[in-house]
Amino acid sequence: MPNIHRLKKQRIWEAVTCFPRAAREFFRNDGLDTAASLTFFMVLALFPGLLALISLLTFAGASESGTRWILEVLQLALAPNGEALTGESKELMDIAEQFLDTLAANASGTTLAIVLGSIGALWSTSAYVVAFGRALNRLYGVREGRPQWKRRPQMFLITVIIMVLAVVSMALFIATGTVAQGLGNILGLGDSFVTIWNWGKPPALLVVFLLILALLYYYTPNVKRPKFQWFSPGTVTAICALGLSSLGFSIYLSRFATYSATYGTIGGLIVLVLASWLGNIALIMGALVDIEFIRLKQLRTGMPSAEEVQLPLRDSTLIAKKNLSNYKDLVQAQEIRLRHGGDPLQDMAVDPRAAIRPKTKVFPIILASAATWAVTRWSSRRGLGRRRGERD
């Protein structure tokens, strides 16, 4: 029994060490810079993504209630305690409200126009998913091997699934008590279903967020993970980090930040960029936690995963094409070098600095040293001879 308890404690300790190692890997892989690059693509994808979301809600006949729900969620994120918005928070809220009203006005039209606009907006939004896949490839230490004609439709499909999940969750959460009452009457639960409905909204939203993160972590990188896990240490870490960063950032905005006073009307946009950056940091940390737990499982089975996790690639076609292209470039460079009088026997892999480094010739140095020694000895003997002659 003592050995079993000791083994359990050891396994728990090994699992706990995955979190600090993920934090160290975050800085080793320049996680702050990666989050900044993802923030660029997120800001570019945010506006077409909201346009697609509003268009789909318009198609479902819930654009006004959906817009109102988005603003309520944003207000809850900026003011978790329910206090009145001030300063940068109010500035950002006003910008979001004006922007959503403009999108809702532009999203109206015929069914064909809404569908085509949604497809174009979703294609633009998928650029962030593609960038997220590249970032995860760097974390896994692999190269992208899927060709564009294969990878981009896959990322577009993932974007569509994520957007559909967002629309379904919003449609559930913007449903009024009358709708819940009607469903309760259909199911035979009556008024009790309204209470269950209200209590079930936050857990359902959490499940949707976990599923979206699982889709990003599993399908975007060019590696085949052991299995799809919507509830994993990485997804839970990302959700917790997102919640804590949102809480801390809202407190910072309400008490310390002065972006609106310093930058004027663009202060709200600066706040948006900073919030996106913090969110991407949380997503990267969640991905690294998943990687460390995969590494731990492989190390326990004896696999050599101390430096890189051993996972098969989804596709290596593009890698082979890039290697062939690099080889052709090297051959072309070799031909140019030989055409201009280069040594055909010289290896191209030789350090180029060695070709321009002057060769040290040993014989002239020895000859100069010997001549210096002979002159010095001759002058010393001549001096001694003069002194003896003066004494005599």
UniProtKB/TrEMBL annotation:
It is found in: Cell membrane. It is a multi-pass membrane protein. It holds the Pfam family Virul_fac_BrkB. Its main location: membrane. Keywords: Cell membrane, Membrane, Transmembrane, Transmembrane helix. The keyword Transmembrane applies. GO terms for cellular component: plasma membrane. The keyword Cell membrane applies. InterPro entries: Virul_fac_BrkB (IPR017039). It comes from the Bacteria. The chain crosses the membrane at residues 38-62, 112-136, 156-183, 203-219, 231-253, 265-289. PANTHER family: INNER MEMBRANE PROTEIN YHJD (PTHR30213), UPF0761 MEMBRANE PROTEIN YIHY (PTHR30213:SF0). This is Uncharacterized protein. It comes from Glutamicibacter uratoxydans.
